[in-house]
Amino acid sequence: MKKILPFLILALLLTIIPPGGSSANTSVIQLGSDVLFTQFHQVIEDKKVGLLTNQTGINGSGVSTIDMIRRDYSVTLTALFTPEYGLNGKTPPDDPNTTYLHPVYGVPVHSLTGPEPQLTKEMLQSMDILLVDLQNIGTRHDSYLSLIHSCITAAKEHDKPIIILDRPNPLGGMIVDGPVLDPAFLSEVGVDTLPLTHGMTIGELALFFNRTIGADVTVIPMAGYKRSMTYQETGLVWFPPSPQLPDLNAVLGYLATGIGEGTNLQHDDSYNWMGAEGIDAYQFADLMNASLLPGVVFFPEERESAGGVRIQIIDPRLFNPAKTGIYALAHAEKLSDVVIQTGSSEHTLFDLRMGTSKVGEMLKQEASPKEIEATYVPQLAQFLSLRVPYLIYNEEHYYPTMPISLKQHVSPAPTPIQTPEADGNMTETAPKPDAMPAVPNPAKPGSEGSVQPDQTNGSKPSQPQVQQPAASTPVPGTPTPESPPAKAAAPAPNQNPAPPVAEKVAYLTFDDGPSPVTLHILETLKSFDAKATFFVVGRSIPGNEEILKQIVAEGHSLGGHSYSHDYRYLYESVDAFFADMEKGNKLIEDATGVKPALFRYPGGSTNTISLKYQDPKHYNNNHTVMAAIKEESNKRGLTFIDWNVTNGDARSNRYTATEALAQIKQQVKNQKEIVVLMHDTATKSATSQSLPQVMQFLKEKGYHFEAISPDRQTISTVK
Q1: Where do the record's region annotations for Disordered lie (predicted)?
Q2: Domain containing 694: what range?
Q3: Which of 216, 409, 679, 680 is catalytic?
Q4: Domain tally for the chain?
Q5: 511 in catalytic set
Q6: Does 317 lie in the same domain as 201?
Q7: Active site annotation includes 158
Q8: Is 123 exposed, middle or buried (0-12, 13-18, 19+ CB in 10 A)?
């Protein structure tokens, strides 16, 4: 028995350790694959699932998403899809075996390789949803981006929902740089109008791509992640996405040293060296080091007949791969002609990878790095604005309480437009899009009267910096900083006087924005020449200031709806409520120059949820926190706004536009004055869809539409 005992113990240990390795989790964040199974399992429960993944599809505990699904008896894995290099990351790219039956899993495995990977109807017919778990490398050239773009397109074509499990961008979320792709140069190495480094996660990119596709896309966000985190700071183990990128140093160096693909410049040693024949290694290193590029130093090193530099990244947080690559190209051109290889296609490979022909043209003119940078600074600024609606993370650790599920309204595909430069000439740039407004933080309670216990965060992402050329004189094309908006005077009394008794007025109000549907709401209001009132949540404002400015510019009213919308904090005490409210109002004022005088209590002024969270040391059923807050509001001269009609969207996220309209029709009789409560969040798209019918119905009932003004005290009591 003593001889057998050690083997029994070993067998017991082996049953405890999961197939993917030890369950010890050293990461400080949860990946989308972790969050899927710990928080949002309902999105795959009882579903037939197809999974696009490879060796990078590993959760924070080292267990593959394949194994997590196979252990889950409520989910059926029906097919696997793989990118380049197959399921294990080692399959040769030219392997003819593109589809096979997995010997262990017993499901078909489809290889989606090639310049235009295609998901066919036959591949998708066996599944309810397509799940994607891949680690991208943070550059526009990443082949996974073209694959995901193709999958979203196929999901739209074949009416299949697609779920993206989010992962960090290994280049970080703060560096956005390099030429922005001109739509004329769209290809498999550039499927959208992105710069070389975009600073977006794979989930954010999926939302961004979907603006022109319109598929049913859901992102399962990470938990505990914030935008400025480096990959090293997440504590995650790096799993190489391809044999050429064995470690994080190779990923960081890929764009900096591999930027010359399509020219005579070479790279070597897992993207840690670059050079070319005819280059003096010492002069090259001197020029690169003299450029004072952030986070990196260069050492001269020759490889056979080629002179070049080895890069040593000393600070991954500061290192800018795109900027480094552009400087390397310009300096290499001065030391030895950079030969751009031509081919039979319309554009050279180098131009396709640059996303423009301008860089190649300027290299031939021996332009300086700063001159090359100046050609794309305006487009970078436009991209930063374009991407804002699709960002999920900010500078606070992010903790989601719901998936980000969005069936996008499709914007036109990007096409070049003419825009004036500072000198009055016209230049071709990427268009200013009909972009959706910001993807709302899913940490926000989705409805009045509901409580989201995990909500701790939700402000919009801080705007990453564009790496501007450092020059003592102004760089051509560089936009000058905008001055902050001047503080506007408070609205004059009686700007919106009480309507005559004979008139019927409808005050349309939208809570919890800005969100992906705000611009659609504004478009509808404009089509009816109508004004409305938006009660915004402060944590959703950063990055969405332009939306608030548009609301004000178009004559609508803005009111506060707290900063956090977190009942646990808001209704603990009077001090907590007003600290939170004032924080949100300050963001509104900073964005628009107007200090809001209107506000709406989260949950309404007669809510009972506040009783649950009031501090029992100071409040009880006879002296409630809500009564104390309202008393203090009166002292401060604030106007709170309730409602007497609602479309019912606060009760559930599963409702239709028809149901929302029916709710309005049921409640609107012949009241002289109605305040209609609706919600402005990503999960309330049916509200936006129903709005034209709602407004038409109210017009036919004899109502006209007005924005709420602080001097209209009576409408605070309509509830």
Answers
A1: 410-500
A2: 504-705
A3: 679
A4: 3
A5: yes
A6: no
A7: no
A8: buried
